[in-house]
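Weekly structure sync, notes
Attendees: PL (lead), two postdocs, one rotation student
Agenda item 3: pending single-chain targets
PL asked that the sequence for the first pending target be pasted directly into the notes so everyone works from the same version. It is reproduced below exactly as submitted, 102 residues in total.
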Amino acid sequence: MAKILVCGSSELQEGNMRGFESNGHKLLIARIAGKVYAMNGICKHQGGRLYDGELSGKSVTCPLHGSVWDVTTGILIDFYDNLPNEEMYPVVEENGSIFLEL
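Predicted structure, written out during the meeting:
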């Protein structure tokens, strides 16, 4: 696994998310309850960029068709159709920086 720098810890405040692209992966990172999570940033429904959606608590809503995902688990919370879970990725926060392990 490669350890990839995402951003400085101070660049991702509590309750916020952002998009990140590396090695062909489009990911969403979010800080929830003091912990940083990373999941696939592209909705399984029709490819909406989840990181352009709305984050409320630990739920992100896809901006295209309103599917709602838990950013701490990658599990679909609400949608009219069943969709597979979004992939989650390991995150390491150290020395004032956030890294993904891809």
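Discussion points:
- The chain has a mean pLDDT of 94.
- Residues 75 and 85 are 5 Å apart (CA to CA).
Action: rotation student to compare against the earlier draft before next sync.
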